[in-house]
Amino acid sequence: MERRGALRIAGVVALAALLAAAGVVYLVTECRNIPAPLPGRQAGSSDHRTGFAIASFLLAAVVLAAGSFGGRLRSRARIR
Questions:
Q1: Closest alpha carbon to 38 in 51, 59, 49, 22
Q2: Do residues 65 and 49 touch, judged by C-beta distance below 8 A?
Q3: Which long-range contacts (CB under 8 A, 24 or more apart) does 58-64 make?
Q4: How many Å separate Cα 80 from the centre of its chain?
Q5: Where on the phi/psi map is residue 44: left (φ > 0), alpha (ψ -120 to 50), or beta?
Q6: Among 5, 9, 33, 79, which is least packed by CB within 10 angstroms?
Q7: In this structure, are residues 34 and 26 in contact, taking their beta carbons and an 8 Å threshold?
Q8: Sequence spans of domains, the chain
Q9: What is this structure's pTM?
Q10: DSSP 37
Protein backbone atom coordinates (compact mmCIF):
# COMPACT_ATOMS: atom_id res chain seq x y z
CA MET A 1 0.00 0.00 0.00
CA GLU A 2 2.77 2.44 0.86
CA ARG A 3 4.46 1.87 -2.47
CA ARG A 4 1.29 2.72 -4.38
CA GLY A 5 1.00 5.98 -2.44
CA ALA A 6 4.63 6.86 -3.07
CA LEU A 7 4.21 6.21 -6.80
CA ARG A 8 1.12 8.41 -6.89
CA ILE A 9 2.96 11.21 -5.12
CA ALA A 10 5.91 10.87 -7.50
CA GLY A 11 3.57 11.01 -10.49
CA VAL A 12 1.80 14.11 -9.20
CA VAL A 13 5.09 15.86 -8.51
CA ALA A 14 6.48 14.87 -11.93
CA LEU A 15 3.40 16.18 -13.74
CA ALA A 16 3.50 19.44 -11.79
CA ALA A 17 7.22 19.82 -12.56
CA LEU A 18 6.57 19.31 -16.28
CA LEU A 19 3.83 21.93 -16.25
CA ALA A 20 6.04 24.38 -14.35
CA ALA A 21 8.90 23.75 -16.81
CA ALA A 22 6.57 24.48 -19.71
CA GLY A 23 5.61 27.73 -17.98
CA VAL A 24 9.26 28.71 -17.70
CA VAL A 25 9.78 27.91 -21.39
CA TYR A 26 6.87 30.17 -22.29
CA LEU A 27 8.25 33.01 -20.19
CA VAL A 28 11.83 32.87 -21.44
CA THR A 29 11.45 31.80 -25.07
CA GLU A 30 10.23 33.91 -27.98
CA CYS A 31 7.24 32.59 -29.91
CA ARG A 32 9.30 31.61 -32.93
CA ASN A 33 11.60 29.43 -30.80
CA ILE A 34 8.99 27.56 -28.74
CA PRO A 35 9.49 23.78 -29.07
CA ALA A 36 7.10 22.10 -31.51
CA PRO A 37 5.15 19.96 -28.97
CA LEU A 38 4.01 23.07 -27.09
CA PRO A 39 1.15 25.17 -28.47
CA GLY A 40 1.57 28.89 -29.13
CA ARG A 41 4.38 28.76 -31.65
CA GLN A 42 4.25 31.58 -34.21
CA ALA A 43 6.81 32.02 -36.96
CA GLY A 44 8.57 35.39 -37.03
CA SER A 45 7.16 36.64 -33.71
CA SER A 46 9.41 37.90 -30.94
CA ASP A 47 6.62 38.02 -28.33
CA HIS A 48 6.52 35.89 -25.20
CA ARG A 49 3.43 33.84 -24.36
CA THR A 50 2.76 35.06 -20.83
CA GLY A 51 -0.85 33.85 -20.92
CA PHE A 52 0.30 30.32 -21.67
CA ALA A 53 2.91 30.61 -18.90
CA ILE A 54 0.35 31.73 -16.32
CA ALA A 55 -2.03 28.95 -17.34
CA SER A 56 0.77 26.40 -17.07
CA PHE A 57 1.79 27.58 -13.59
CA LEU A 58 -1.84 27.55 -12.44
CA LEU A 59 -2.31 24.01 -13.75
CA ALA A 60 0.83 22.92 -11.89
CA ALA A 61 -0.58 24.39 -8.67
CA VAL A 62 -3.96 22.70 -9.23
CA VAL A 63 -2.28 19.34 -9.84
CA LEU A 64 -0.28 19.65 -6.62
CA ALA A 65 -3.32 20.75 -4.63
CA ALA A 66 -5.53 17.99 -6.03
CA GLY A 67 -2.84 15.38 -5.35
CA SER A 68 -2.47 16.54 -1.79
CA PHE A 69 -6.21 16.77 -1.17
CA GLY A 70 -6.90 13.37 -2.75
CA GLY A 71 -4.36 11.67 -0.53
CA ARG A 72 -5.89 13.15 2.59
CA LEU A 73 -9.36 11.97 1.63
CA ARG A 74 -8.13 8.42 1.08
CA SER A 75 -6.29 8.30 4.40
CA ARG A 76 -9.38 9.52 6.29
CA ALA A 77 -11.54 6.93 4.56
CA ARG A 78 -9.19 4.13 5.70
CA ILE A 79 -9.26 5.30 9.32
CA ARG A 80 -13.06 5.17 9.63
A1: 22
A2: no
A3: 59/19, 60/16, 60/17, 60/19, 60/20, 60/23, 61/16, 63/12, 63/15, 63/16, 63/19, 64/12, 64/13, 64/16
A4: 33
A5: left
A6: 79
A7: yes
A8: 50-80
A9: 0.78
A10: T
